[in-house]
Structures are given as C-alpha cells and as structure tokens.
Amino acid sequence: MEVDESRGEPPVMTQRQVVVCIDDDAPVLSAIRRLLRHEPYEVITTLDPSEVIHLVGSREVNLIIADQRMPVMLGTELLKTVRRKSPETICVILTGHADLSDIAGAMNDGAVDRLIRKPWDDLSFRKMIRDLLDRRPTAGLDDDEVEPSKDSGERVVLHLDCEGRRAAEILSQISDTLDGPQGPPARVVFVLDNLLKISGPLTVFLSGIVGRIINRGARAALVDGSGAAGTFFELVGGRLPLVVFRSEAELGPPKKVLVVEGKSDYLEYLRTLIESAGHECEGVASVGEAVNRLSARSFDLVLLDLVLPDAEGLEVARFILERQLATPVVAISGALDRPAEASPQPGIRRRLSMPYSAREILDAIRDS
After folding, report:
1. Do 278 and 93 touch, CB atoms closer than 8 A?
2. Which ranges constitute the DSSP H helices of the chain?
3. pTM of the model
4. Can you name the CATH fold of 2-145?
5. Residue ranges of the domains in the chain?
6. Tens-place pLDDT, residues 280-307
C-alpha cells in the first residue's frame, strides 16, 4: 500500500478527503497517483482487495476507484462489500472492457456510482473525481438529488384570442397563469389565436411575453398559426426558454425524456428546449448516471450523446436492449459523420448529426 504525501498539509489544520485506488497493474496505480498528486486528497493505492476492505472498516474512505478485472476478485464484487460496510463511500469502477453487462447488475444494486474507461482522458478523470467528492454525502446519484418536477400533471393550455384586444390585457392573463401559488406551471402552452389582429404593436406584445417568462424562470410553448411569432423569435435569436409551434398537433403528447449529454452547455440547452416544449426532462452527463436513472424509473425517450466522459454512449443503448426496456433511443453526436458511426447500431432508432436544430430535436421527441 502506498500513500501520496506530496501535499504534506498538517492533519490538525485540514482534514483531507481519502481516495483509495486498487488495480492489479502497478503502472496503472502509479499513473493515477501522478494524476491526483496536486489534488487536495489523501491518495492511497494498493494491489490487494483485502487492504481496501480493512481501510473501509478502520477509517473514513470518501471514494474508491477499483479496477473491474482483477485476479483475486472482480471490482464490482469488492465494491458490493464496500457498500455494505460503508454506504456513504463513493464507488467508481475502472474498466478497459467495452461491454457494460458485467457491471450493469452492480449499478442496479447501487454498488457502483460511476465508470471510468481505460484509457482515460486526464482532465475528464480529475474533473469526475472532483465533482463526485464535491457532491458528498450522496455521491451525486441518490434520488433526493434529482431535481423534482414542479408538476407531474398534463400541460396547462391557455387559449388567448387576440382579435381586437389590447396587448396589456392579454399579458395580464399570461402573468396570472405564471404567478400561481406553486409558481409557474411546469408545462404551459399559450395558444395565440388571431395574433395578427391584436390591437397595438405586435413586437411589443411578443417582447412582453418573453420578459414575463424569463423573469419568472418559466418554460413555455407558444402556438401561433400565422407564423409571425416564430419569425419574430428567429430574428431576436439567442436561447430563449420558449418554443413556437404552428399548431397544437405539432406539440404531440407530453413525454418523459432522459438526456444523456457529456457537455454541460449542450445539456442545459436541451433541457431548456425540451421543458419549454411541455415535456418532462431529466439530464445526466455519464453512462453511470444514465443507467441509474433508467433502473429507477421509466422514460418515453432517451436522447443520447455517443461520446461521454466515462464510457461510450452506446453502452446506454446496450443496457436498454439487455434489460428489454421499451425505451426508444435517439443518438445525437458530432461523430456521426464518421464511417464507423454511420453503420447500423443496436438500439438506436434515429440519429441526429450536430449541429442539430431545435426543430429536429422536438420532431424526434414527438415522433418517438
């Protein structure tokens, strides 16, 4: 067993978090130790699974990184033992194998929180460990950290006949809908009938709608058969928390969507877009989180980035197939133009190449 003492902080002044790494390959352990040497952790490396069990029983261990394929025991078996002894310890599997099937069971049992794929990217590796330790004590994957839906019911649909009416009067109705006792509805649709016949400047009215939605932190969809609202918002540009449809039929029924996207800015954009269209959305950034979500509840659709920080996105599609889940998968990736990605892939119903449009995403959800 080796301890990295390169930081050298006196324990009386600061109590560092403890990270334990186990692998049967000593060079791998050396690489991890070098990778984490400037991080504010006490890093312990070992070749012996029994040493890990002893450490967990004798002191607080915040996070364990365990290789899956070890001669004495599988990493998943070790982490199941760790979980029984120390439920709060974060458990990460290190694997060079492409198949998720031998790890999926441990994920379902809650013994594995994340995957790290060999060979790893150093920056992504360090960031994952930081994020997991920063989100203690729940390892970032417990149900109580999932952002709750404001409303599990159907969409709130408000029909607003604009013909001959003043903009202020209609904006007041919109404000009343957004200012309910529980805050803005989670899924709200404003149907603007006869929009072109409103009394007063159209641009002022549409700007007023945007201002009210943004100020209340709401998401909303607008339905306008004239096309004027869609044209206005295209000219305004930017990522607004609303989408525009030409008819209610274009909306489709509300669905539960899981977005698996490794880039935080894309993930936030997709969540805003999907929620604005009146759907329920959960977003995760890794294969491990996706498997945990899919094991905990059902979804109507998975939007799947094929390049994720901990593993290939296709592992999520394989997991869905192996578990015989009736969940369609739409792949979203900039890698789709490569010949290897253009071939048929198991479990993928549809593919969208980046840069994809908002309309492509919404049509894929509606048609799934």
Report:
1. no
2. 26-35, 49-58, 75-85, 101-108, 122-134, 167-178, 202-215, 228-236, 248-251, 264-276, 287-296, 314-322, 339-342, 358-367
3. 0.60
4. Rossmann fold (3.40.50)
5. 2-145, 156-250, 254-367
6. 999 999 888 898 899 889 999 999 998 8
Give the long-range contacts of residues 349-352, CB within 8 A, separation 24 or more: none
Q: Which amino acid is at 223?
A: V
The 3-state DSSP class for residue 282 equals strand
CA nearest to 127, candidates 116, 136, 118: 116
How many angstroms separate the CA atoms of 152 and 138, rounded? 25
Please tell me the predicted confidence (pLDDT) of residue 100: 59
DSSP helix/strand/coil, 31: helix
What CATH superfamily classification does 254-367 receive?
Answer: Response regulator (3.40.50.2300)
How far is residue 172's CA from residue 167's CA, in Å, rounded to a whole number?
Answer: 9
Alpha-carbon distance of 151 to 237, in angstroms, equals: 29
Whole-angstrom distance, CA of residue 281 vs CA of residue 361: 13
Say what the pLDDT of residue 314 is: 87
Q: What integer is the mean pLDDT of 56-74?
A: 93
Question: Helix, strand, coil shares of the chain as percentages rounded to 5?
Answer: 40, 20, 40
250 closest CA partner among 225, 275, 213, 218: 225
